[in-house]
Amino acid sequence: MDQNIKAELISEFKRVFGDEDGVRIFFAPGRVNLIGEHTDYNGGHVFPCALSLGTYAAVKKRNDKKIRLYSMNFEKDGVIEADASGDLINSPDYKWANYPLGIVQTFRKRGMPINSGFDILFYGTIPNGSGLSSSASIEVLTGYCLKELYGFDVTKQDLALIGQDSENNFNGMNCGIMDQFASAFGKAGHAIFLDTATLKYEYVPVDLKGIKIVISNTNVKHELTSSGYNDRRRESETALKDLQTVTSINALGELDEESFNKYSSAIKDEVCYRRARHAVTENLRTIEAVKALNAGELTTFGRLMNESHASLDKDYEVTCPELNIMAETEQSLEGVIGARMTGGGFGGCTVALVREEAVNSCIEKTKEVYTSKTGIVPAFYVVDIGDGPCEVV
Ligand code: GLA
């Protein structure tokens, strides 16, 4: 698979940039989050894993200060050019290339300016707008390319933090650390149990004997995606400020259910109260889910996934009719252990754990119900948990 993609990338690189001599190929994965949604900017836990889907780059240093970028996914945009000799600023002219250029600028801001430009060609296998973190994968990938090409001394954690910094400050999306962390730290066969308050993490083997991870794409992406996301962040912060008038906590993730119930009357606004209730209960569900997985109690894990979806729907209000139809249909089917929306919400995908023998029937049935209720044809991916960034040799 990789070898075919490699040959195609090299020949495309030659076609676009003229000379493929010395070009190197790198890859960084997208992610799916199994449980722990909208907890990563609330000091809670998340439980994502890297996918074998992701973004590839063919890249080669130049002798001058030009940066030339091309994406096989956005052929119409052609070659985009920037100048590596000074600060880079987000620009509509850069289109999708604001993601990689944001990384170049963030390295520069952190005292790592590049001493020459480069030509880079991208090819992503993550469906656009699916909520499987194509942007985090391109950010981590670009950081990894810069590390390898220019010899910068950056750790995996740096790559994740640089990616988040660039997304927040160059691209204006106020995301947490989960997506970039999952891409940078990916490990085949394992999910990452990450405490976002401390960045301490643990690899948990996802030994799903006879069970598959099925991702179902609603194929909708609602307008609200980034404004709704930033609103939820603000509402969570307002709830935290109210709680801090009665208890000394730094983040909602520090509360258990008992202390939340004890102090929650300090939250003045009903909407903010529900946002906080989700952040607290989702964090507790994530901790419990990892315990259940370690103990081989998959039914408990599945129940917690279903509860997570309900909380994201009712308390956090980041689902949408399409996501609810998809998740609820899956939850009702024989052989499905649990199903929930995954990622930021307002469209995108659900993730479900499905018994191997039921995968085909589950996909067929879900497709039928979803299409008849929404008029939209969904897409399904039966995925493997993949590794973090690497050079494809
Ligand atoms: C998006 C963000 C993440 C995280 C999720 C919700 O994917 O990029 O940081 O907040 O939404 O869990």
General description of the model:
It is a single chain. The chain is an alpha+beta fold and 393 residues long. The protein folds into 2 domains: 3-206 and 387-392, Ribosomal Protein S5, domain 2, CATH 3.30.230.10; 211-383, GHMP kinase, C-terminal domain (Alpha-Beta Plaits), CATH 3.30.70. It contains 11 helices and 13 strands. The protein has helices spanning 2-17, 98-109, 134-150, 156-169, 178-185, 225-243, 257-263, 270-294, 298-314, 321-331, 359-374; strands at 24-33, 45-46, 48-61, 66-71, 80-83, 118-124, 190-195, 200-205, 211-221, 336-342, 347-355, 379-383, 390-391. The radius of gyration is 21 Å and the shape is globular. 49% of the residues are buried.
How would you concisely characterize the structure shown here?
This protein is of the alpha+beta class and 393 residues long.
Compute the gyration radius: what is it?
21 Å
Total DSSP E strands: 13
CATH topology of the largest domain: Ribosomal Protein S5, domain 2
Briefly, what CATH class of the largest domain?
Answer: Alpha Beta
Q: Uncertain segments of ≥5 residues (pLDDT<50)?
A: none
Order of helices and strands: HEEEEEHEHHHEEEHHHHHEEHEE
Structural class: alpha+beta
Q: Count of helices?
A: 11
Our measurement of the CA-to-CA distance between the termini, rounded to an integer number of angstroms, reads 12 Å
Neighbour order of strands in the largest sheet: 5-4-6-3-1-13
Strand content: 15-25%
Number of domains: 2
Question: Could you tell me the mean pLDDT?
Answer: 96
From the spread of the alpha carbons, the general shape counts as: globular
